[in-house]
């Protein structure tokens, strides 16, 4: 199916009070070590969260636009293994790929969850690993405000959910009601099922996928999600992650080259980390 036949995604955000983070269940399922076995100059890797995070990392529309300009209209392969993230950034990337003049081949190597699943739809040809997954759901955001704000937010998110359902339906041939039911259920769709449902065209061969060590960034994101489950405040999580991620953008480095925290970390945060790690090994 030509990507040009797909609907254009809506642009922008419903309101300034909304922020997006990666769904914890998607992070749990994400193996950041899964990569393409081989790449070339005309390939784009989507191997991180969607949208810029507080380290300045992540897959953004700006970065994808720059990569596509460098391709200069040549055919491109987009390799995806991402837990998702900022849905609205994902819609912008989808539009960039949809409008690209060259042929786009999408390869889902591990997981294309949430915003990454929308990006995956923007291929002329979509290939998925037999053990890979698409995950589709409704918009998932953080927000603040009173009851009137939340009532307004629910209304403003509805068009985005409808637009995403329209994209999945157009790509697959499923009717809107069936797609919306899958989204409401936060559905993880395996490789063979994705092909059967029309959300992918074919299965990838096993030798197209390489399973290596998980990246430090992926491990830190999972640690952040783990701490969130212990109700550690976001500010404390960020201090701890920054202290542990000395080599990552945004980390503080001391004069002797060793990583240091921007602020002192509360003992309670260290205790939360120790408890979370202890629970993992039980």
TrEMBL record:
Keywords for the protein's UniProt record, in alphabetical order: Cytoplasm, Hydrolase, Protease, Serine protease
UniProt entry tagged with the keyword Protease: yes
Example of a GO cellular component annotation carried by this entry: endopeptidase Clp complex
GO function terms (MF aspect): ATP-dependent peptidase activity; ATPase binding; serine-type endopeptidase activity
InterPro entries, alphabetized: ClpP, ClpP/crotonase-like_dom_sf, ClpP/TepA
Gene Ontology biological-process entries: protein quality control for misfolded or incompletely synthesized proteins
NCBIfam families: Clp_rel_HeadMat
Family note: Belongs to the peptidase S14 family.
Name of the protein this chain belongs to: ATP-dependent Clp protease proteolytic subunit
Upper taxonomic lineage: Bacteria, Pseudomonadati, Pseudomonadota, Gammaproteobacteria, Enterobacterales
């Amino acid at each position: 199916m030509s990507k040009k036949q797909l609907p254009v995604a809506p642009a922008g955000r419903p309101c300034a009070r909304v922020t997006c983070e990666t769904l914890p269940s998607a992070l749990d399922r994400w193996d950041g070590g899964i990569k393409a076995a081989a790449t070339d100059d005309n390939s784009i890797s989507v191997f991180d969260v969607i949208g810029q995070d507080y380290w300045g990392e992540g897959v953004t529309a700006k970065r994808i636009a720059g990569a596509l300009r460098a391709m200069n209209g040549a055919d491109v392969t987009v390799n995806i293994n991402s837990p998702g993230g900022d849905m609205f950034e994902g819609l912008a990337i989808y539009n960039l790929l949809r409008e690209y003049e060259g042929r786009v081949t999408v390869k889902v190597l591990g997981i294309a969850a949430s915003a990454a699943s929308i990006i995956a739809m923007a291929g002329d040809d979509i290939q998925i690993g037999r053990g890979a997954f698409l995950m589709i759901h409704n918009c998932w955001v953080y927000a603040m405000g009173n009851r009137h704000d939340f009532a307004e937010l629910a209304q403003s998110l509805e068009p985005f959910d409808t637009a995403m359902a329209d994209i999945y339906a157009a790509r697959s041939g499923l009717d809107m009601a069936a797609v919306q039911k899958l989204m409401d259920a936060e559905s993880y769709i395996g490789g063979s099922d994705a092909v059967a449902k029309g959300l992918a065209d074919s299965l990838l061969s096993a030798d197209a996928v390489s399973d290596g060590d998980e990246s430090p960034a992926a491990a830190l994101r999972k640690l952040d999600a783990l701490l969130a489950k212990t109700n550690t405040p976001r500010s404390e999580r960020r201090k701890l992650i920054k202290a542990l991620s000395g080599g990552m953008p945004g980390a503080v480095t001391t004069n002797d080259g060793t990583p240091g925290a921007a602020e002192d970390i509360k003992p309670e945060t260290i205790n939360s980390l120790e408890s979370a790690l202890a629970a993992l090994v039980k």
